[in-house]
Specification:
The complex is a heterodimer of chains A (317) and B (540). Chain A is mainly alpha-helical and 317 residues long. Chain A is globular and about 85 Å long. Chain B is 32% helix and 21% strand. Chain B has 17 helices and 23 strands. In chain B, the strands form seven sheets. A six-stranded mixed beta sheet of chain B has the order 16-20-15-19-17-18, with helices on both faces. A five-stranded mixed beta sheet of chain B has the order 10-11-12-1-13, with helices on both faces. In chain B, helix 9 runs antiparallel to helix 11 and helix 14 runs antiparallel to helix 15. Classes of the chains: A mainly alpha (317), B alpha+beta (540). Chains A and B meet through helix 2, helix 4, helix 6, helix 7 and helix 9 of A and helix 1, helix 4, helix 7 and helix 13 of B.
Amino acid sequence: MLHYASKKVLRAVLTIWIAVTITFFLLRLLPADPTLLVVEGDMTPEMQQALREQYGLDKPLFVQYLLYLGELLTGNLGVSFRQLVPVADVLLARLPWTLLLAGSAFVLTILIGIPLGVYAAVGRGKVVDKLVQFLGITSNALFVPSVAILLLVVFAANLKLFPIGGAIDPDTRGLAAYASLLQHLALPLFSLVLVQVGPYALTLRTNMLEVLGEDYIKSARSRGYTPRRTTWLHALRNAFIPALTLMGLQLGTLVGGAVLTETIFAYPGVGRLIYESVQQLDYPMLQGAFVMLALTVVLANLATDLIAMFLNPRIRT
Amino acid sequence: MKRYRGTGIVAGIAAAALLLSGCGLNEDQGEQPDAEAGASTLRIGTTTDVANFNPLGSLSKTDSWILNAMYPQLLRIDGNAEKVPELAEGYTLEDDGATVIYTLRDDFEWTDGEPVTASDVKFTAEAIMEKQLGNVAAKLTWVESIEAPDDTTVVFHLSQPYAPFAEGVGFWMRVVPEHIFAEAGDLSAFANDQADGWVGAGAYVLDSMTRGQRYVLKANENYPYAPEGGAAVGTVEYVVYPDVNTMILALRNGDIDLMGTPVPASAAASLQSEADITMEEVGSLGFAHLTYNMQNPTLAELPVRQALSMVVDTKSIISTILQGDGQEMVGPISPIFGEFDNPDLDAYPFDPAAARELLEDAGYTDADGDGMLDGLSFEVLCDQSNANLTRVAEVVREDAAKAGIDLTVACIERNTFLSRTKDGQYEIDLSQWGVFDNPMDQLRSTYLSSNPGGINYNLVEDPELDALINDAAATVDRAEFVEKIQGIDEYVHDQALLTPLYVETFRFAYRSDRFEGFDPSPSDLLGMVTGYSLSQVRPL
């Protein structure tokens, strides 16, 4: 068991190292130069050289890489090219917003997606199934920015039910602050859930259909268990295993995919930070953000694996 | 039910996230602001956060807007693109222009109560020179020494006379408080965020911020140019909307009162019909252009460049692509610079047939009979993020084909574009200059063969042009100086080093049902949001 766990942890560390390395070299392979973005118009060659030195870009690529890895091991993500402050500080300020948005989208997607998938599978071929399939395909085809703008125009601009952009009204205190937080969260959350829930429900429906045809379900029914109990307890339990894996992967998509949502809804999370940092070619900031995202996904998967280990005796032995 | 624990953990993470951002919501915002009677708040939309608070090295537009309002400059640019007094009452030249003397007002004061003095100006310029900070470092190239003989006099000694020195430094340099910055250590990174708040002396000074959302500035009571009794707008709030469409919705909804960024041409018509919104038209200090790489042997031939200039239909480009929001220009000097723009120049006519004739006279033929003249294939490099220019590229490509010139359009991602232009990897550069505050700096940066600022995108090395520019740069007499600039305007036009496309007119939208009295300056860098402009605004 310890052997299994340590193997998993080692693999997680390896994955993060690969992610860090790819990010590092990918950014430096871009045919662009961050120093050019610092001064608009006149920039003397001396100034450019000074900036290269300040950014550490004057050293050979491999030396830069080793230095970066060394700093990373001591927990130092470096200093932002553009903001001139430690990357970790900026990320930590932005992370809660992304966790809030992506985390609640994640939970809501599951809470809505599971019943939809189950009902569709049980009522196969009926209206409810057709509706779920329709929703699944439509939601999969939706383009987040279009949905986001549409929601803003209808619910914020025309109906004035929600604010346009931002995460919270900084002038509110106490309970009003929480209300403001939820109000600002509603539309970006809804657009994220809308595009995620369809594919999720469809996957679960397929799994359920497969499981519902298994012998043990038939035997459970023949033993006199109610259809409801068979479906929700016996079938869902097994249909849920592949869906669990999907969830782990989805977390990464959600956090990373928040880029567009956060940009349109002016939500101050990591996604928007990445969007801005790409435009500014802020290497340390981008590296830090990607390391953090990789870490989130890897940890989530590691957690899933370890939980599965405790739940599944076959892995344990 | 064991397997459902996965969901429980996820829900736990989400709950923790909720708590993380939830516990003590807005506690770092300090006291809840009271609805202050009398002082009104103006909210401005911007697309980016403040990246960097360092007034000596900062660059993004939002940075500039906020820092320009906080730190006084010696001169400012008024609505006619003329330099007018700000911190300096004026300046005089001595030693045939090799000595520049600014006289400062004595009533500017830092928000911590210290007066703004000549020694702050001297300190700022010396710090910039020592560390080569920002684009101001290039403006100070000629400075040998600086003196501050008394509190209101600053003397710059130059190695040689440079005509627009006083204007360039006066406009670009943000003066910082010596008593704070001298103690700060590394000035290239210092943000001036004191424990007890920011210290500035401009019209508005930063008071608080919520990163990613908003930046709040308070009016400086001691700003000498505010109307009698102080600025009517007591608080300026910058609100961040990364997506311009979201920002437009926010303006319509009344969540903001002014869009700091210009309205895109595509959205202008719909905003026009809104009764509560007015769009103010503001000129620009830059212009869009096609610039030819003179290191390319074919483009180095004059008839080829002239022919290219004759396939660009600027009139229809302005009326269709800019929807009329632009002005034509003939030579390299923008009409916004008034007297410097040579009135005797005639634009190259739009005439693809004549262009083809010109090329055939120069010896170009169509041997393979494909309709295109042989050896006349060029790539037009442009910045994809400028929607207008990508459309211009297509129009020009089609018209050039009529003259037998084969253009390929390469509109690429902005950062790659900048990198390729810097390295001279292009044949024709289609781009837009941002801000030139005076024509002399522009000509010097864009045409000197020594390429001092790295933006001689023609890569032209012409001793005659060099001589003309250096001669004009040392000319102190105003009339003579104007005449020499006009002469260079004509020379560059005759050489067809560039084909100017247009001077864009920016439209800034604001809630005219709430505010009036903006005093805009040209360019999207200054626009409606200079400290001076904001201090003149009145609520309705």
